[in-house]
């Protein structure tokens, strides 16, 4: 069982009072600057819009062929300095300020990819006469550097992130005999870790016990899944594999499947190799390789796959998933798949 992405997010921020939103106020300029973080290589792009009076800002992220971040500024119309901004980066494709209904203005930032809520922040600041700063709207975009990964033969020196699906407050699927997906995925992941380490790979599990990965107990689905993706970012991993068990209302549904999102040249190849490995070693029905937009396969910037090892809703496969013998078989299959993946291609840009 998998979580879905929340693709529309609206945040309203404001300090202005209704009485202060005089139609006569104007947006006088748009400034921007880049701030580099030497610790993690990330960059922050800051846009500042100056206004002649207090304003409020409402932000909407719109996903699509060209994702956009739209910031509507209420209480001010565009002045001479609010319009097109000559700004382009890896993330930002264009910035245009325009008039919006009801004496408002809108800044539209066109993006090269979808943004996670953690990747931007919009807020208003009040006039600061002491420092000669006007009322203003601040838009911060956080750019994570492009991921580098290696695809060369051999598991030695590869960094592999294994993500045991679910955990802690989220049990995942529960079988007819009460076997929990979160327990099965962790057991398989630990076996994969041991086998890969024997072959010289460096392995990091997103969790190595029964817990949520996001710190704290009230994370949204996106925060929890992003925390798993962040492990791969932090570790500069070459590949990301999320382990799950499938579930269906039809208890006869059975077999092994692998999902990927075609975002690098290697995602499909990885999924195919893992699927072959698991079907050969595990011996279950081959349910194939499928493209999907799952959070972890989509948002990890490196080749990634999500494996549905077997159906926990199928009593026979539930028993298998709960048995050390089958857990080991599937783990061997995943490791064989990873070995095949790395040996079949040379590339990457690490
Ligand atoms: Zn799952």
Descriptive overview:
The structure is a single chain. The protein has 2 domains: 9-143, Immunoglobulin-like (Sandwich); 150-348, Zn-dependent exopeptidases (Aminopeptidase). It contains 6 helices and 19 strands. The protein has helices spanning 181-198, 221-235, 267-282, 295-299, 315-321, 324-344; strands at residues 9-14, 26-36, 43-51, 56-62, 68-74, 77-78, 84-85, 92-100, 104-111, 120-125, 135-143, 150-151, 159-164, 202-205, 239-246, 256-260, 286-291, 304-311, 347-348. Helix 1 (181-198) crosses helix 6. Bound molecules: zinc ion (ZN). Residues 1-2, 165-166, 172, 181, 244 line the site of zinc ion (ZN).
Keywords:
single chain, alpha/beta, Immunoglobulin-like, six-stranded antiparallel beta sheet, binds zinc ion, disordered N terminus, 6 helices, six-stranded mixed beta sheet, 2 domains, Aminopeptidase, 350 residues
